[in-house]
Structure formats: C-alpha cells, structure tokens
C-alpha cells in the first residue's frame, strides 16, 4: 500500500502529464501507467465520452479487457446492474466498486457473474470523470480474483484525481485543429454501414470504410477490431425499448477536420433478423452547438441567439423569435463576441465556418 507521500508525488506527476502530452490517446496511456504505481490493478480502460449522450468516443483498453469489452457493453446497455456509468453520472457518484456496491456480495452483480468472474477478475473500480456538471469520460480498473478488493483509501485518492483528469479530457474534446481543415467530401462524405446483431460488418460504402479506418487510427486499434464508438451506439440502439426509435448518436472530436457524428438505427430485415444501420457524417450545427457552448461558456440564452445567427436571422427576427427586445439581442451578441474572440456577426460566422465547419442554414 502506498503512503500519503507517494500518493502526493504521483498526483504531481499526473498533473504535469496533462501539460506535456500531445494527444488524448498518449495522455490516457501514460495516465494508466502512473495510476498503476499508486493503486495496483491488473487491467484497465480509460474512455472518452460524448458529454451529451455519455457514449464512448474512443477508449484506451488493455488487451485483457479488450477480450471482454463486447460483453461489458451488452451488460451496460442491455441489463440493470450496479454502478452503471449513466447511473453514477446521474447520482454524481464519482468513484464506486463492485464489492462496495454489493456490500461484499459481488455475485449480486450481473457483470461480475457473467463477465468478470469467467475472465478471472475480482473487484472492479469505476470512476466517472466529471468536471462541474459535465462528464467527459470513464476510468475503469480491475483486479484479478486472487487479489484484494479496492480499499477505501485508494478510492478516495482516485476521487481526488477526478477533476484533474476530467479537465484534461475536456481540453482534448474541445481542442481545435492547429490550422483550418475540412474533410474532402469526395473521400469523407456520408458513410453508411450495416451490422448484424452480433456487430459483424455486413455491408458498407467506401466512405464508411474510410471513416472506420479513421476511427481505428484514432484509437490505435487493429483492422479487425470494431471501434468503440460504433460498438457503443450499436449496442445502445439494439437494446433500446421496442417502443422507442432505436436510434443512438455520438459526436467525436477527430484529430483533424470537423467533428464526426455517428448514428445507429435499429433495423428489421424481411426475415425478421435485427440489424443496425450506421451513418457517418460531419457534424451539423445542432450537433456542434453544445460543444461550442461548453468551449466558450455560453449561457442557454446565448446558445439560442447563436443558433439564430447560424440560421441567418436578423436582429429583428432574433428579437421576435425569442420574445426579447432588439437591445437585449445586441447585449447578448456582444457577450458572444467577447467570449469567442470576435468583433462582429460576420466575423463570428466566418469563425464558426472555418474552425467548426458550420455554415448558415
């Protein structure tokens, strides 16, 4: 067990790590190495999520977790179980373990019985990486069955790290390319793929194949591995209640070009087989507004004004649609200009187009 002095030293290293790593993948890989020095574990996964849907936008997963990843997704979205990520985010419970949640009776957990035990794992520690009110990722640590459970002191130390890690995850999620870039529409237009109920690729167009390659490159995974965002939206779509639309969505910050939106829609074939259609497309204004709002700290009213500006509404039209005066519209616009570093509506539109690939609609 580490001493308090060792915990402090490793925390300092983690704090410094956020300032020297150049990519989200490298940051999370190095983070897991440092965490292992303070809180020993046998396997781990660190996942970026879309803060709007809480679905994975990419994960750093060690090999012994990769083997059980599909089954973990199935439990997460298909069954009720202790310490679900969404439940933890909703309850603002930053760190939890299976042994603690089941009062030392882990067999009460479906995930423990069906996935962890067959894989040789014992206790599992989950952390939801929340900054303020928004979740940017998940951290999951596992110990083998022959190891001790996670101690309260270890959980408390991980809890103290959550704001630090979440802040860095947020920064990577909102980071803009160093230069203005857009996708080549001839290469990266709308992509369509169809998966079986076992998430096997049944068909795809060339654009979808290129998007899949991009996502694999982002996660640094092999060509035979299904990218985690695809696995997440597909599994959620498959497990949506029958009366719902069976649609799931995730918005992904790519290393270059605009943000990518991936949608999954549940299908039923003529022979009653369930499949899922995956669509790939650059993010639309409605997808981007929550990201822009978070990046620049826009209020709810400012977001409404910004959406109207993107639509090309005049000051008079903005005032009428929001039931406020033209003077109030101007005050809100000045605040938006100040927060985004521009000085006029024209400059704002140009900025949104060049940096986020948003155009007037």
Automatic annotation (TrEMBL):
Q: Name one GO molecular function term.
A: DNA binding
Q: One Pfam family name from the record?
A: GerE
Which SMART domains does the UniProt record give? HTH_LUXR (SM00421)
Tell me, what is an example of a GO biological process annotation in this record?
A: regulation of DNA-templated transcription
Q: Which UniProt keywords apply?
A: DNA-binding, Transcription, Transcription regulation
In terms of domain of life, where is this protein from? Bacteria
What is the protein name for this chain? Answer: Helix-turn-helix transcriptional regulator
Species assigned in the record: Paenibacillus odorifer
């Amino acid at each position: 067990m580490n001493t308090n002095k060792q915990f402090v030293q490793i925390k300092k290293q983690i704090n410094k790590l956020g300032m020297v790593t150049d990519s989200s993948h490298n940051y999370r890989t190095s983070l897991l190495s440092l965490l292992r020095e303070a809180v020993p574990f046998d396997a781990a996964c660190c996942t970026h999520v879309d803060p709007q849907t809480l679905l994975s936008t990419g994960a750093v997963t060690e090999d012994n977790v990769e083997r059980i990843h599909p089954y973990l997704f199935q439990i997460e979205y298909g069954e009720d179980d202790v310490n679900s990520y969404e439940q933890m985010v909703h309850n603002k419970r930053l760190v939890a373990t299976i042994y603690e949640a089941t009062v030392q009776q882990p067999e009460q957990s479906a995930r423990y019985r069906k996935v962890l035990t067959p894989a040789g794992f014992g206790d599992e520690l989950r952390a939801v990486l929340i900054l303020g009110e928004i979740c940017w990722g998940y951290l999951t640590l596992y110990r083998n069955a022959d190891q001790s459970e996670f101690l309260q002191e270890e959980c408390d130390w991980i809890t103290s790290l959550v704001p630090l890690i979440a802040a860095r995850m947020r920064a990577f999620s909102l980071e803009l390319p160093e230069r203005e870039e857009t996708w080549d529409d001839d290469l990266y237009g709308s992509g369509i793929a169809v998966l079986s109920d076992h998430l096997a690729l049944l068909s795809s167009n060339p654009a979808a194949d290129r998007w899949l390659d991009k996502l694999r490159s982002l996660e640094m995974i092999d060509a035979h591995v299904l990218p985690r965002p695809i696995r997440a939206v597909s599994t959620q779509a498959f497990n949506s209640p029958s009366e719902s639309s069976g649609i799931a969505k995730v918005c992904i910050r790519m290393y270059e070009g605009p943000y990518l939106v991936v949608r999954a829609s549940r299908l039923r074939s003529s022979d009653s087989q369930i499949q899922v259609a995956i669509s790939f497309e650059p993010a639309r204004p409605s997808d981007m507004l929550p990201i822009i709002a978070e990046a620049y700290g826009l209020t709810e009213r400012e977001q409404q004004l910004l959406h109207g500006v993107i639509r090309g509404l005049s000051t008079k039209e903005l005032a009428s649609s929001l039931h406020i005066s033209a003077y109030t519209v101007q005050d809100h616009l000045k605040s938006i200009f100040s927060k985004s570093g521009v000085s006029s509506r024209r400059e704002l539109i140009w900025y949104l187009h060049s940096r986020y690939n948003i155009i007037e609609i």
